[in-house]
Amino acid sequence: MAFVKDMLRMWAHSWKRFISIAMITLLGVAVLTGIYAGCRDAFRSTDRFFDAQGLHDVQVLSTAGLSNGDIAALRKVNGVAKVQAERSQEVTFDLDGRKSATMQEIGTNGIDQPYLQEGRMPKKAGEIAVTRKFIRDSGKHIGSRLTVTPESASSDTSDTSDTNGADGTNETNGTDEAPSFPTKLTIVGVVLDPQNLSNPDGYSAMTSFRSTATTDYTFFAPSDGVTGTLCTSATLLVKGAAAESTFDESYENTVKQVTDRIDGTVKTDRQKARRQELLDAGNRKIADARAEADKKFADAQSQIDANRQQFNQQVDQIVSMQAGAAAAGAAANGANAGAAAAAGATTPQLDETTRETMRETIIAASPELTQAKQQLDQAQSQLNEQKASTEQTLKTKENELKTSIPQVRWYVQDRQSLGGFSALKSDLDSIQSLGNAFPIVFLLVAVMMSLTAMARMVEEDRSLIGTYVGLGYGRLAVASRYLLFALLACLIGGGLGLIAGFLGIPAFLLVVLQGMYVMPGLRLEYDWLYGSLGIALFVVGVLAATIYACVQEMRQTPASLLRPKAPRAGSRILLERIRPVWNRMGFLGKVTARNIFRFKSRLIMTVGGVAGCTALIVCGLAINDTVADLGIKQYRDIYQYDLMVVSDDSDASAMRTKVASDGRVTSSLDVRIESGDLTVAGSGDGDSGKAGSSGSESIQLVAVPEKHLSDLGEMVTLQPVSSGILGTSGVGKTGSLKLDDDGVIVAQSAASALGVKAGSKVRLTNGDGVQATAKVSAVNRNLIGSDVYVSETYYAKLFDSKDAKNTKNSKSSEDSEALTWNAMLAKLSGSDTSQTDYAESLEEDSSVMKAVSCAHMADSFKFDLMGAVVALIVALAGGLALVVLFTLANTNVSERVREMATLKVLGFFDREVHHYVNREMMILTVMGVILGLPLGRLVGGMLTMALNMPSLYFEVEVKPLSYVIAAVATMAFALLVQLFVNPVLDRIDPISSLKSVE
């Protein structure tokens, strides 16, 4: 009992050490669990939401649409739980200019169900549910009416010559018809699209420039009123996938098994079958056209024959009349009148030659009959020509049908191909990577501080330990006094850390995340396993340090422990050998130098602890500086143009005319901009069509006219980059990179995320959904957005663009109809404000889809999520620095109580004692700061390498002011600690402190 009471009394006396260890453990556990818990809560809530709304595991797209046979084949694939055939249609409407939307049928099989936020779900034909983004942009509300125009209306009424099909999904055959939706719409609900959780009222890291193949909004409509049997896509749910977390590797493996089966068994067969269906449909159309033409020609021939028969009857009647009159005249000259009358009553019989001669004579003598005969002959001639021409056209179509219908391509995609899903996953993964790295530093500092505190605690009880051991107590029992002390401090600190880690920090992070994404059903959850392991990690570290400190003391005999520890033998320090410096130092300066460098353990612990805390602060500020400079570097350094204008294909000419007529442009470059995807090609067939198999990134595909390839460098700074270390990259000389016809230039932001480098093979998807394998000729410095630059000729080679393969020999690329240059990069005159205003005015023009001012983007670019995480990290690092300095200062004082008492006996005033002690701590703090500043840059570079976020590359930047802030903050914490230490120095009693231990 006495042993326990003494142990409790010792614990109460060492409450400062207890608080220090508890606080360090609290901060470490909070950092270890907090960021992880916030990301995990977001992952879990999103996974539950996806399961509830039936977000598809696999989506199958086809360049020729999907027929009922395709859907039936997908249902037979092993591992497929559900298949839902989906119909959609692109439409346009007027909303401060021409806008586009996708009319999406609400599935009836429970897949990709929109989440109702307001109003009700549409049930009748003409009713739709819209997203909150549309409500915000349009100003409309529930009950508002809207009229849309099908974007593909003109292409749906094709004749026989249009049976080539192309690559669109509006392909039709004799049975399947393209989907058609009502055009008079009424808004009845506001929904959240499960495929895109972006918060329309929150922050958007990148403005998306869309081509005509990508729409601005999605409207959800019921099946009622939708016509057409051809499906635009098929969505699948995989058996067992819902039981896995959608963000785990196990889920990806489960889905990959099904996508591999589709690629291996169904895809090839159905591609061939679908193309044969199109060929058969084309042949049927040609046969139907031939039958219809033959019928029309037969009717026309019958009409001509009837007219000709009537004409011949009239001519024959005249011939008969003239022959009868001639016979009557001859009879009158040679007989009596009665005989003549009898002869006139009968028509003379004429041979065919005579009759034909008379016909020709009669026709020639009559202008009316001559004109009638010419009309009949001309009609017959024209009919014969039409018959010959039609037959020749049909035969040509029959011969060209196989070559005019391209090979059907299937694209099998998983959730990674969804831009909203991949962006959310990448954001959370990047933040979680920070949460995995920072606790390592906290753990190292905790171990160092625990070793320092517990070593001093054990050393202070040296004689008491010798007494207990001499009385027969076991060394383990004696050591348990300190082990239980450290364990209790860790458990209390860890418990408080779990509260902060699973409640405080996640709540803070989720508030920021909800500003970027809409996550229904979000709630905070506790992870018993991870929380227990978090505490256990720090318990093991601190107990290991305590055990080491106990072993160092208790390996001595009781007799040695009962005697005071002999002071260390005096020794020279290196500074003493530098005579010019040493001789000029004062007495207190020499004492300070000896105290600092002779006690190397104190030196290492103090400098190491301060350096670690300073490094954390620098690291956080480095990330903040890196993010803050992204907009300026991208939109003022990399992008040399001032304005980007994008239009619909049909309005491209009007857009260029509008911009040119305004007189603000000093130079410009016409390009084509499409939204697409870049996927790392697998080891097999590069054109496999399976997106997301090895990583996918949404890109902005920029096609440049062949004759203006050299002008690209005037609009965009082209600098080749190569991978560096510690967050750096090797940047080549400006202007040393040229766009050619041998490959594409990929933005550094996309290349870094996917591990792409010069010479790599990638799979590109253009704005029409066509995929092709391309070679990367170079990686260009780019921080925001994922631009991929391609020449006009190479674009034609990749995507089989018609009439574009010989553009190098054309007089002007603008005269070629290969591509429509739907965008313009322009340099403007005027100030940044006037450029921003001009871009806003352009967006009001009906021919402009999007106009973006680089000056506005540079000034308005923000990254709230990373800023919030950086603020959290800096705050925790500052708290750790304060605790570390407090622990080290108190340990320093407790080790030197007799020394301080001696100084007081010698006549030192309290202020002089303060200065004597604090000067050493300030020098050690300065040394730690000097070491921590470059260490922070090093750690910051390593962490930014792990931040692979969509459309962003973090080019590490640390401003001089950040180094100053980190140094000043650490020094301020040191000065703050002095306010707590000075009263302790004042309370030292020289008499009791200088008593002999014996």
Please characterize this protein's 3D structure.
There is one protein chain. By secondary structure, the protein is an alpha+beta fold. The strands form 4 sheets. Strands 3, 4, 5, 6, 7, 8, 9 and 10 form an 8-stranded mixed sheet that branches. Strand 17 and strand 18 form a beta hairpin. It starts with a helix and ends in a 5-residue tail after the last helix.
Mean pLDDT: 80
Structural class given helices, strands, pairing?
alpha+beta
Q: How would you describe the shape?
A: elongated
Radius of gyration: 44 Å
User: How large a portion of the residues is in β-strands, by DSSP E?
Assistant: 5-15%
Main sheet specs: 8 strands, mixed
* Helicity range: 55-70%
Q: End-to-end span in angstroms?
A: 26 Å
Number of strand elements: 24
Number of helices: 29
Question: Would you summarize the structure shown here?
Answer:
The protein has 998 residues and is of the alpha+beta class.
Structure characteristics:
14% strand; 998 residues; single chain; 6-stranded mixed beta barrel; alpha+beta; elongated; 55% helix; 8-stranded mixed β-sheet
Secondary structure: elements and pairs:
Layout: H1 2-13, H2 15-53, E1 58-66, H3 68-75, E2 80-86, E3 88-94, E4 98-105, E5 115-119, E6 127-131, H4 132-138, E7 145-147, E8 149-150, H5 153-156, E9 184-192, E10 217-221, E11 231-238, H6 249-334, H7 337-344, H8 352-365, H9 367-404, E12 410-414, H10 419-460, H11 462-470, H12 475-514, H13 528-554, H14 558-562, H15 579-582, H16 587-598, H17 600-628, H18 630-638, E13 643-646, H19 652-662, E14 665-680, E15 690-691, E16 696-704, H20 712-715, E17 721-723, E18 729-731, E19 744-747, H21 748-754, E20 761-765, E21 771-780, E22 787-791, H22 792-799, E23 823-828, H23 832-843, E24 850-853, H24 854-860, H25 864-895, H26 897-905, H27 910-945, H28 960-986, H29 990-993
